[in-house]
Amino acid sequence: MKALFDLSFTKFISPSIAKIVYVLIMVVIGLTYLIAVIASFRVNAVIGLLVLIIVGPIVALLYLVLARVGLESLIAAIRTAENTAELVRLSGGGRPNAGPGAPANYPYAPQYPPASPTPPPAAPGF
Predict the structure, then answer these.
(1) Which one, 56, 69, 105, 111, has the greatest CB density within 10 A?
(2) Within 10 A of 53 (CB to CB), how many other CB atoms are there?
(3) What are phi and psi of 74, to 5 degrees?
(4) Cα-atom radius of gyration of the chain, to the nearest Å?
(5) Biased composition, Low complexity: where in the chain (predicted)?
(6) Cβ within 8 Å of residue 98, ≥6 positions away
(7) How confident is the model over 100-126, as a mean pLDDT?
């Protein structure tokens, strides 16, 4: 809960609430499926059976898979960011793309001004 009010956004709350969001999505999909089955039975019994047995489960499963993939992608991106920040911290480095104030212990910081490449040698005879 403390991370929810972190205005510097240094802590991610998505991994901790992903389970809750996924359960809520499953409940909403289940209720929507149930409402669709009831509504289709009110129209026609054949359509109701079609929605109950074929269309409803396929659509519900598709939405559930899409929700799961979306949440997993979000969690993977957040874990990548956390792991990258931890690796930079452990290596004692500064921020990537740090400018002139880059710490000396970060050897891969870009050099400013960028070194100009040497021109290729001229062809013989010119």
Answers:
(1) 56
(2) 11
(3) -60, -45
(4) 28
(5) 97-109
(6) 106, 109, 110
(7) 61
